[in-house]
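Progress note, sequence design subtask.
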């Protein structure tokens, strides 16, 4: 069987544990050369002094694959350039970026501090920008120089970003922004040979342990729905040369179930044909809301 990522060079951020580790191992198993980026921080972004990136690299090499470790901060713009340079220095090219790094600081909106808000948006939103921006600069320059480009950006949103999650206002906001960023990247970058797609994973990771640990525990003798490894094949396919016709999509995957998401779109409408009086709007708004399809509920809402 052909490995679908043979000789593809892929950066995976936050690849030391959980989903990122599963992605890196899965990509390597499909023939990719992997830059394993991870700061080694805790679930709240705190410094731990650990080096899980090197442990994943060692795992990949033990299985016969190729990988290098990188410890740069994805949310630092100059560091984002160094991450891309690490791929070029080690393997001479770059074909895909998987933006996975992130952490949570769960707080109800009334308790969230500006510092917590900024920290979460920084790692998720700015982190998705910095690495991808440098990668796009490299791919765009190659395309303008006459080289064929077949590149991929894979972003990480969340069900929290697609429908909201109680107690995670900053995280939900960041993940919603990432979903929209994916749409814009897909529209702007296709001309350069770059696709952009996103994931809303359902997996057991350090970030889900606090809120959903019991619900996500594997049940003896049953398929492990929430194993991070379940999402790895989708990531490998999205990074491969086979996914070139797919862009601007957000995928949800739970166990063996894969779903293409549908975002905000036009709903019920009424045109009065003239300017509304404020007092007249209420009745029509109630009517329109009653006609719209019922949205998925916010996670954790009563």
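Output:
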């Amino acid at each position: 069987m052909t490995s679908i990522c043979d000789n593809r060079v892929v950066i995976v951020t936050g690849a030391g544990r959980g989903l990122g580790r599963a992605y890196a191992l899965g990509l390597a198993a499909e023939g990719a050369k992997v830059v394993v980026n991870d700061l080694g921080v805790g679930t709240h972004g705190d410094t731990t002094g650990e080096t899980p990136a090197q442990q994943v690299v060692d795992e990949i090499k033990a299985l016969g694959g190729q990988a290098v470790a990188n410890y740069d901060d994805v949310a630092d713009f100059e560091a984002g350039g160094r991450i891309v340079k690490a791929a070029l220095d080690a393997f001479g090219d770059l074909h895909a970026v998987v933006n996975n790094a992130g952490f949570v600081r769960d707080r109800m909106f009334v308790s969230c501090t500006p510092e917590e808000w900024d920290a979460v948006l920084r790692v998720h939103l700015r982190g998705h920008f910095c690495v991808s921006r440098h990668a796009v600069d490299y791919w765009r320059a190659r395309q303008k120089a006459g080289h064929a480009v077949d590149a991929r950006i894979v972003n990480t949103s969340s069900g929290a970003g697609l429908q909201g999650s109680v107690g995670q206002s900053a995280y939900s906001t960041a993940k919603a922004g990432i979903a929209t960023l994916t749409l814009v990247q897909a529209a702007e970058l296709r001309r350069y040979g770059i696709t952009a797609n996103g994931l809303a994973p359902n997996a057991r990771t350090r970030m889900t342990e606090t809120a959903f640990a019991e619900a996500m525990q594997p049940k003896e003798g049953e398929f492990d729905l929430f194993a991070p490894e379940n999402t790895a094949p989708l990531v490998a396919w999205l990074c491969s040369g086979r996914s070139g016709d797919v862009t601007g999509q957000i995928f949800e995957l739970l166990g063996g179930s894969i779903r293409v998401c549908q975002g905000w779109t036009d709903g019920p409408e009424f045109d009065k044909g003239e300017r509304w009086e404020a007092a007249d709007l209420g009745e029509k708004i109630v009517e329109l809301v009653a006609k719209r399809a019922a949205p998925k509920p916010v996670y954790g809402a009563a």
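The radius of gyration is 21 Å. Work on this subtask will continue into the next period as scheduled.
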